[in-house]
């Protein structure tokens, strides 16, 4: 490698590090969830899909939901590892559900009378972070609920762990990995 | 660059090409969709999420749309028509009820909310998770190869086997109403 090329590479790396540093320090100012101190993990929207579901809330209609996981979480799901290893993060994205007339028109040909639904607008994103030491009192999980990028209040976060307690025999995680069709 | 380093990179690259070629030629015709010749793209289950949906009776399924990197970039950049190389996967699962989730609602309904037992049961009845997979469909963009069908090749696989020719004849006709969005129904979920 010529010396000139080497110098160029070093300069490029240095520029990258400098460019990255201010971006990170911006994230450090973002709000963390009460009780657990969990922040929105960078890039979670690009994580791999665990599963999807629909939830019906009395008086509030239905939500469509997708759960995604970081690499540690996905590996554990695929291999059936329980409890999840430290570092696993699961993000549950929730949207309102709306009817899709466009889809209904199309589906009406092969399946007359079909009603189909797509997502409306984002409701919130919930994060579970595994750290068996830091969160020993809550099954090793730290919880967070963000709406429009802002964490919910302490009262809301006090409900996280009791709600997940019924899933104790599966490490407090409700979602099963949806197999490839 | 040292000659040895160059040689190592060259060998690694060659090995990659050989492996890739073997993988591609491993797909025989019986694994390809009729009309379009689309095969199941390797690793599609690990692609990024575009959006989710649900279809009611008689299908009663939950769906997820995933895209390869070209598809995801096009969605974010709002690039229509989608560029060649785009692949969109539509996964579907039977909707099933989850006893674990039902119990969670019952606990929460009884102790932390003001919901009546009837409201909790109603809530539970409208909640579903992804059960057994039903089928997977793909749209592959190749504006030259698939010029007569909007630039898209279509495929449906049930249990890893392509559906018949009659099924595949319906693909494009069904997608035509979405011509303004390059024959793609799904929008990217924010």
Q: Indicate the structural class of chain A.
A: alpha+beta
CA-based shape of chain B: globular
What strand line-up does the widest sheet of chain A have? 1-2-3-4-5-6
Chain pair sharing the greatest interface: A-B, 57 and 64 residues
Order of helices and strands of chain B: HEEHEHHEEEH
Low-confidence stretches of chain A: 16-29
Rounded to an integer, what's the Rg of chain B over CA atoms?
22 Å
Instruction: Give the amount of beta strand of chain B, in percent.
Output: 25-35%
- The termini of chain B sit apart by 45 Å
Sheet bearing the most strands of chain B, described? 6 strands, antiparallel
Envelope shape of chain A: globular
Q: Which range does the strand content of chain A fall in?
A: 25-35%
Question: Explain this structure to me?
Answer:
- The complex is a heterodimer of chains A (181) and B (190).
- In chain A, a hairpin with a 2-residue loop joins strand 5 and strand 6 (150-151).
- Chain A contains 5 helices and 6 strands, in the order αββαβαβββαα.
- Helices cover 29% and strands 30% of the residues of chain A.
- Chain A has 181 residues and is of the alpha+beta class.
- Mean pLDDT of chain A is 86; it is low at 16-29.
- In chain A, strands 1-2-3-4-5-6 form a 6-stranded antiparallel beta sheet.
- Chain A is globular, with a radius of gyration of 21 Å.
- With 190 residues, chain B is of the alpha+beta class.
- Chain B has 5 helices and 6 strands; from the N terminus they run αββαβααβββα.
- Chain B has helices at residues 3-25, 69-76, 99-111, 117-125, 165-175, and strands spanning 48-55, 61-67, 87-96, 128-141, 152-158, 161-162.
- Chain B has a 6-stranded antiparallel beta sheet.
- The longest helix of chain B is centred in the N-terminal third of the chain and has 23 residues, at 3-25.
- Chain B is globular and about 65 Å long.
- At the A-B interface, strand 1, strand 2, strand 3, helix 3 and strand 4 of A face strand 1, strand 2, strand 3, helix 3 and helix 4 of B.
């Amino acid at each position: 490698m010529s010396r000139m090329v080497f110098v160029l590479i070093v300069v490029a790396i240095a520029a990258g590090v400098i460019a990255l540093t201010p971006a990170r320090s911006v994230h450090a100012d973002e709000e963390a969830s009460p009780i657990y101190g969990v922040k929105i993990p960078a890039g979670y929207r690009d994580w791999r899909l665990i599963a999807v579901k629909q939830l019906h809330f009395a008086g509030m209609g239905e939500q469509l939901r997708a759960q995604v996981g970081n690499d540690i979480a996905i590996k554990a799901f695929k291999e059936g590892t329980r409890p999840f290893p430290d570092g696993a993060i699961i993000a549950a994205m929730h949207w309102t559900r709306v009817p899709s007339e466009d889809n209904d028109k199309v589906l009406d040909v092969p399946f007359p009378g079909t009603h189909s639904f797509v997502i409306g607008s984002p409701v919130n994103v919930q994060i579970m972070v595994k750290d068996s030491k830091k969160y020993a009192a809550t099954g090793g999980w730290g919880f967070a609920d963000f709406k429009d990028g802002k964490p919910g209040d302490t009262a809301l976060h006090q409900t996280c762990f009791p709600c997940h307690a019924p899933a104790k025999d599966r490490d407090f995680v409700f979602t099963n990995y949806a197999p490839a069709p | 660059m040292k000659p040895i380093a160059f040689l190592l990179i060259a060998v690694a690259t060659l090995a990659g090409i050989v492996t890739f070629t073997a993988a591609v030629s491993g797909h025989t015709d019986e694994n390809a969709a009729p009309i379009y010749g689309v095969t199941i793209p390797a690793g599609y289950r690990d692609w990024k999420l575009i959006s989710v949906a649900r279809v009611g009776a008689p299908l009663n399924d939950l769906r997820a749309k995933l895209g390869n990197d070209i598809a995801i970039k096009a969605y974010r950049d709002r690039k229509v028509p989608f560029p060649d190389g785009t692949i969109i996967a539509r996964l579907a699962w039977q909707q099933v009820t989850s006893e674990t989730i039902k119990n969670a609602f019952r606990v929460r309904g009884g102790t932390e909310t003001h919901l009546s037992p009837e409201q909790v049961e109603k809530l539970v009845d409208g909640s579903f998770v992804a059960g057994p997979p039903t089928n997977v469909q793909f749209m592959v963009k190749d504006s030259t190869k698939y010029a007569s069908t909007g630039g898209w090749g279509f495929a449906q696989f049930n249990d890893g086997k392509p559906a018949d020719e009659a099924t595949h004849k319906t693909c494009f006709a069904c997608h035509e109403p979405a011509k303004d969005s390059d024959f793609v129904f799904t929008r990217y979920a924010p």
